[in-house]
Amino acid sequence: MTALSINLNKVALIRNSREGNYPDVVEHAKLCIENGADGITVHPRPDQRHIRPDDVRRLAALVKPIKSIEFNVEGNPFAPAIGSYPGFIELVKETHPDQCTLVPDGDDQLTSDHGFDLHSSGEQLRPIIQQLHALGMRVSLFMDPDLEQIKLAKQVGADRIELYTGPYAAAWGSEQLEANFQAHIAAAALATALGMGVNAGHDLNLDNLAKFASIPNLLEVSIGHAFTVDSLAMGMPNAVRAYKALLG
After folding, report:
1. Which of 13, 70, 188, 193 falls 20 to 30 Å from 218 in CA-CA distance?
2. What is the extent of the structural domain holding 207?
3. Structural domain total, the chain
4. What Rg value do the Cα atoms of the chain yield, rounded?
């Protein structure tokens, strides 16, 4: 069964709109876990627009002792230390998540919107991946469904890829959907044949998830924005159960 990892960035975004710690990201992580989530994902950015370094530390303290729950920290491996942000790799080394998902996002991006071009960044990523492996972490690379790029992901040492599903979600209900879906099927099949695991994430929701989750050997989906919106309408426990039902 495909695992469900809940991305709590938007809970932190709401919290950051006021002083204090309400809503508490850790308490909402507990709620997700209690209602069936298989993992917790966060994406700490240097501008700290949502998840802050201390959130990552507190979530690590919550999740790491629970062997059945995966802690996934994602972000730009080249993000440097800025103010109270220690740098992405330093924060990951400190909190030691089960999985580190490397994403080529910049501070000027509203959200992650493309996968790695490993022709240009592969050799920079290789020693970072080796360093994370030495610390016992699984490494996933955020990738478009480009077969050439997926072959390169294997060559630089990735354990998994996370397929960027934004274009799939944008094509939902259009004539472009099936071609986009078939590209993801081919990408997942190639990654599996090369010995890598396959994750997916970005703009997956209660409408489009079931079709995408039919892709063979899909190990994990990370869902945050739509999950948070659905939680407002149906309550977070019910939202977790609804997404789990689509993956079950």
Report:
1. 13
2. 3-247
3. 1
4. 17
| Residue 202: active-site member | yes
Q: How far is 23 from 148, CA to CA, in rounded Å?
A: 43
List pLDDT tens digits, range 67-106: 999 999 999 999 999 999 999 999 999 999 999 999 997 5
Question: 240 φ, ψ to 5°?
Answer: -60, -45
pTM summary value: 0.96
**Is 74 known to be catalytic?**
yes
Assigned token pair, 45: 């950015």
How much of the chain is in helix, strand and coil states, percent to nearest 5?
Answer: 45, 15, 40
pLDDT digits (tens, 9 = 90+) for 206-220: 999 999 999 999 999
Q: Which two tokens stand for residue 163?
A: 């397929």
Instruction: List the catalytic residue out of 50, 184, 202, 220.
Output: 202
Q: Which of 43, 50, 70, 184 is catalytic?
A: 43
Question: Tokens 């997700």 appear where?
Answer: 32
